[in-house]
Amino acid sequence: MPRKPRLAVFKFASCDGCQLSLLDAEDELLAICDRVEIAHFAEASSDLQPGPYDVALVEGSITTHEDAERIKRVRADSKFLMTIGACATAGGIQSLRNWGQIDEWVGSVYPSPEFIRTLATSTAIADHVLVDFALHGCPINHHQLVDILVALAEGRQPRVPSHSVCLDCKHRGTVCSVVARGIPCLGPVTQSGCGAICPAYDRGCYGCFGPSQPANTTSLVSQFRSHGHQTEKLVPLLRSFNAAAPEFQRASEQLVILGTSSEGCRS
Amino acid sequence: METPISPLFIPKPHLQLLLDELRRRKYSVVGPTIDQDAIVYGDIHSVEQLPQGWTDEQAPGHYRLKRREDESWFGYVVGPHSWKKYLFPPKTTLLSAEKTESGWQFIPRSADTTKFALLGVRACELAAMRIQDQVFLDGPYQDPLYRERREQLFIIAVNCTQAASTCFCTSMKTGPRCEKGFDLALTEIDSGFLCEVGSERGREVLDAFISSARRASEGSSNDANSTNENVTSLPILDATPEQLRSAETARQQAVDQITKHMETSDLPGLLLSNLDHPRWKEVGERCLSCTNCTMVCPTCFCSSVTEVRDLNMDRVERERTWDSCFNPDFSYLGGSLVRNDTASRYRQWLTHKLDSWHAQFGTSGCVGCGRCITWCPVGIDITEEVAAIREGTLP
Amino acid sequence: MTATRPTLHENPWYTHTVRITDLIDETEGVATYHLKFTDGDAATAYEFIPGQFNMLYLPGVGESAISMSGDPARKNGWIHTVRVAGNVTKTLARLRRGDTLGLRGPFGTGWPVADLVGTDVVIVAGGLGMAPLRPLVYHLMNHREQFGKIWLILGARTSDGLLYPCEYSAWQKRDLEVILTVDRATADWNGHVGVVTQLIDRLQLPRPEQTQMVTCGPEVMMKYAAMSGHRLGIDAGRIWVSMERNMQCAAGLCGHCQLGPEFICKDGPVIRYDRIRPYLFVEQL
Ligand SMILES: Cc1cc2nc3c(=O)[nH]c(=O)nc-3n(C[C@H](O)[C@H](O)[C@H](O)COP(=O)(O)OP(=O)(O)OC[C@H]3O[C@@H](n4cnc5c(N)ncnc54)[C@H](O)[C@@H]3O)c2cc1C
Ligand code: SF4
Ligand code: SF4
Ligand code: SF4
Ligand code: SF4
Ligand code: FES
User: Fold this and answer.
1) Which atom of ligand 2 is nearest the CA belonging to A183?
2) Which of B291, C136, C218, C269 has an alpha carbon within 20 to 30 A of B74's alpha carbon?
3) pLDDT digits (tens, 9 = 90+) for B337-382
């Protein structure tokens, strides 16, 4: 039996939800502990051992100078670096600041803004260091995380399906909300992973798992516009947890350029 | 029992007795019902669950449930579901593996004993079932689950009395009239259904149903399971010439409402000889590669197998799920993807459905049900795409 | 056309347990596995046509299509030569003698052994493409008198990749001309360097119209080999290629392996070149 891989979990700007989903996987957690040595996981244990690590799970985005430096050290300490969740993989909901005036916000939120030192942007880990594997989702699907950890522990190449949410939506027998109700849904351009929950509850997909491969946002957005959906509604749809994922960012910026004109433009 | 030569007339409320008869014979009756703002296929215990008084409005990328002016029970066209989900379920366990002292043991899935009775199968859907029969039963290997379910299947077809703007069964020569492949076939007219018999099994069920209807109308039924309190005392008789004429008119109405057309004279051939047509790239820019068209298509049969394991790997199940040539991973080969852009995936779909299917199975893979047109989130229309390829082709 | 034999079980998903009885390292990352049914009843049926394949199953990891590489006449087990590619083959490579795995098969068409009778045969193999051709070579050797001249042109990246080297002399002795080439010469190599097509081009075929070509290797290699064969006068209807596509069912039920109108699992893997040629040259089909 080869030595158990050493696992570390690191947090950057994030809500902890993804790390917690690992703790949530109670049933599997014990079995995982059998296979990997958890060397550094602040949420779970105060015993934080130094690197090097075989596998680093990185949650959260880069929003401060300090974090921009810290992630480089994490990378240097880790053989396999995997981002978990929308923040680490695409910048998260906090990347909305990328389109705003950070100084104004800081000024309006904090009583002493001079003590706040932050970057003007929230960026994905991959914008700073090489990422070996990206696990999407806000929050991630813990079954996928467990599968990946097991694959790594067993020396296999991890893999998650990359198809659109629509495939899962159809497996469930859900009636398409775009077609039958005219609800804008990001399912066709979003990667599977959630099990297509929202359309089954009469909601369009919010894109939590980020852009699928390919994500033809141009065609989908133009269809939504031709259905009469307003730019003011569509831009926030594209700018949520994965606002700064390239395909979603491009689409929302195109929409802004097209302005508030709600006339459809069927391609 | 005497064999009815001409169609029988079944007064509307009696349909419940037919459902009861099927349930008595241990069939799970499935048919049209309203759910999630659409007419879908689900379990039916009572005729009350049928979409009485409802219809659908369809166009590319568009479906709306609408109130009808009358109380028709089958006054809709085809919806987001297809019957394939019963014979070829979206998820099935194929086998399981168990680790034992002496190594891996493989346990085949146990035979499936579910008997389905499908209520409301349209002509194009009968054709689709014949096509899936060829795929799953007529090749060198049969799919066991499909075979088990198919052998037990009871089919009550319903002739269309209207068509959607997306229907083109007339082009594909699959409808709208149900001609074969059913046990019983109904045509809805004002006060009831004309019923034709298509098989021995159909006749048997019909005869039993007639007896129970007779008992019910004589008021002598004391079958506690049946929900026939409001069954009228109307008898089941041969259809009158007038009823036959109304049925014919109703069916003709569907034919007259079909406006969509697909030219098939140069299929097969047209698409496989236009593999480098510029239209593929153009449609590839509109298509989302979302898989919806293939999921709703009643003939698409593609699937993938995945491993479902517990962490200790003492037990593993092999699960088969619907897959699609629009899923990029579908063409995975040795670390890369054969069809690596949406244009090539759209080309696979269209050439398979309309062209190479002929070489594989001797028929078109499309029955003209129009589902892929309606349920494409961006309204891509298969008939327009073929026409565009044809237009750009030098004769 | 080539014949298909039914699987051992009418249910194509029926998976047998097999045990590794022998394990031979061939070259870096390539090993030959001898597998035997653990179920005595199944053990009587080790029949296959050269060119056919089995699906090997590693529970929890997945399945892979792997050709038979043993002698079809010796019905005492399954022999497979496997290269480590991805997860399934990597996991397989970690197994040892005595371990068990799953197997279903045999599937697919085989080499057209009946059509080859009375003709001269050019066998062209690239790298691991030799594995599915070895059963054919055995068959030709077992019935040497039925066939005319036989050439085996075998190419690999380096000499390490030339499979089954210790058998060449036995084949030569039975009047099969073995011609070897490598893409890149290493210190130990003093033979031919270059692609297989150069060697095909040099063949002197005494009766091209009575000659058939069978080839297995990377797709580009087979395309060029077929073109060379064609130039020598071997008509496309007498050239046979063995294709590879993703396979999930191996039984014509899952749709994965389609290439144009062909299901590589049931219409192939061995397909006559004139049938597959129109689709071989189309990108991303
Ligand atoms: C007819 C035939 C005969 C063959 N004979 C031999 C032989 O004799 N010897 C030999 O060594 N090889 C042979 N091969 C090739 C062999 O099947 C592949 O190299 C092998 O399947 C690789 O499996 P793997 O798990 O190691 O690799 P992987 O590339 O990991 O593939 C394993 C399976 O996982 C799935 N998969 C993995 N990643 C993805 C992804 N990103 N997207 C979608 N699906 C994915 C695929 O379904 C694939 O089948 C043959 C192939 C065919 C078709
Ligand atoms: S509801 Fe959304 S996810 Fe579901 S099929 Fe429609 S577009 Fe796709
Ligand atoms: S291709 Fe479209 S129209 Fe044809 S059968 Fe499939 S879903 Fe119906
Ligand atoms: S069109 Fe695509 S999904 Fe449908 S049967 Fe053909 S290959 Fe499969
Ligand atoms: S044709 Fe329409 S439904 Fe089909 S994959 Fe493309 S966008 Fe999706
Ligand atoms: S591998 Fe499933 S159809 Fe060929």
Assistant:
1) 1
2) B291
3) 999 999 999 999 999 999 999 999 999 999 999 999 999 999 999 9
Domain span including residue B207: 8-391
CB A82 within 8 A of CB A115: no
CATH superfamily, with its number, for domain A6-153: NADH:ubiquinone oxidoreductase-like, 20kDa subunit (3.40.50.700)
A28 touches chain B (CB under 8 A): yes
Q: Quick check: CB of B14 below 6 Å from ligand 4?
A: no
Terminus-to-terminus CA distance in chain C, angstroms?
24
* Three-class secondary structure of residue A244 per DSSP: coil
CB spacing of A157 vs C87 below 8 angstroms? yes
pTM beyond 0.90, yes or no: yes
Task: Tell me the CB-side half-sphere exposure of residue B156, using CA atoms within 13 A.
Answer: 26
Can you say whether the dihedral through the CA atoms of A101, A102, A108, A113 is positive or negative? Answer: negative
The tens digit of pLDDT for each residue in B194-240 reads 999 999 999 999 999 999 888 877 764 444 444 444 455 667 789 99
CB of B294 closer than 6 A to ligand 4? Answer: yes
The CB density around residue A50, as the number of other CB atoms within 10 Å, is 9
Residue among A150, A164, A175 minimizing CB distance to B311: A150
For C38, other C-beta atoms within 10 Å of its C-beta total: 16
Residue B84 lies in a domain: yes
Q: Which atom belonging to ligand 4 lies closest to the Cα atom of B297?
A: 4
Which amino acid is it at C70?
G
pLDDT tens per residue across span B27-83: 999 999 999 999 999 999 999 999 999 999 999 999 999 999 999 999 999 999 999
Alpha helix locations (H) across A82-187? Answer: 85-90, 102-109, 142-153, 165-171, 177-181
pLDDT digits (tens, 9 = 90+) for C224-281: 999 999 999 999 999 999 999 999 999 999 999 999 999 999 999 999 999 999 999 9
Q: Tell me how far the alpha carbon of residue C140 lies from the centroid of ligand 2, in angstroms.
A: 57
- Count CA atoms within 13 Å of residue A148 on its CB side: 25
Asked if C61 reaches chain A (Cβ–Cβ under 8 Å), the answer is: yes
pLDDT of residue A258: 82
CB contacts, 8 Å: B344 with chain C: 283-285
Count of domains for chain B: 1
Interchain contact, A157 vs C61, CB within 8 Å: no
Task: Report which ligand 4 atom has the smallest distance to the Cα of B301.
Answer: 5
Domains along the sequence of chain C with CATH? 16-107 (2.40.30.10), 113-280 (3.40.50.80)
Closest approach of chain B CAs to the CA of A163, in angstroms?
5
Domains of chain A, residue spans:
6-153, 165-266
Which ligand is closest in space to the CA of residue C53? 1
Model ipTM?
A: 0.93
Q: Determine the residue of chain A that is closest to B341 in CA distance.
A: A214
Residue A249: which pLDDT band, with cuts at 50, 70 and 90? very high
